[in-house]
Amino acid sequence: MEADGGPGANASREAGWCLVAEDYKRFYLPVTYSLVLALGLPLNAAVLWLSWCRTRRWSCSTIYLSNLMVADLLYIATLPFLIVNYALGDRWPFGEASCRLVRFLFYANLYGSILLLTCISVHRFLGVCHPVRSLAYRTRRLARRGAGASWALVLLQALPTLAFSETGSRAGRTVCYDLSRPDNFGHFFVYGMLLTLSGFVLPFLIILVCYSLMIRSLLRPAEVRAGTGSSARAKSVRTILAVCGLFALCFGPFHVTRSVYLVVRLRTTSCPLLTGVSVAYKMWRPLVSLNSCLNPVLFFLSGGSNRVRLLRELWPHR
Asked: How is residue 180 annotated by DSSP?
């Protein structure tokens, strides 16, 4: 979802002085976003439909996962705009309001997913490490409040993107800036680094602590683990693997490449270096959208019955 613009259909003038060829964007980005749209829309819609219409009593995990699906669907709804934009050679024909909304929803989905996954991880941690003492804290009421607090924090984190993201004119074509106008990049740098710390680093540290303590608890002998059944342990292991996979594939590499890109673009005077980190960041950036396809997997890993229920709803006579 990057659009720094450029003097030609296949180039971007980074930092005002370095011309970066971007021929790959016209083909790579529409294909990637089309794949995310084709997979993410039915997966998230099916999980949300099953949770909303076919689940009588929501668990805490269902509350968090349903909010996760809503965040995914809001972002997926913006993908047709991006597909058209990049298929036209990085030309934005939809107006400034839609440009700001598309960029805002990307960050809302990204950091909403991270915060909701953090809530799920803390919930699993309490259930595994403190199964009895934490009963008062693992309630649906507190889960709803946790999801609401996550949305409120995400809105505060992502609101500045509505100011930074805007349309501009380059070489006779309209582009939709993802980060900011080149002359406003210094301000965006500060915001981007703070966003990385608050939206990624801090939640990631919380998840690491939770999972480290969970793994230590799960490795204890059975007679020492009081109150944690085999089903709960299996769910916890699946959650650990799924969330770690999301961070390893989507969230971690994106934030590393973006942070390097921001620092290099602000500080370097080497065009080859800036070209390299720009391509790395912009090649990886659409891959973070794969979290919209992978998040529904958590629903099926949270319990074997969820897979059976969905298959029965889709094919009731089988």
From this structure: -
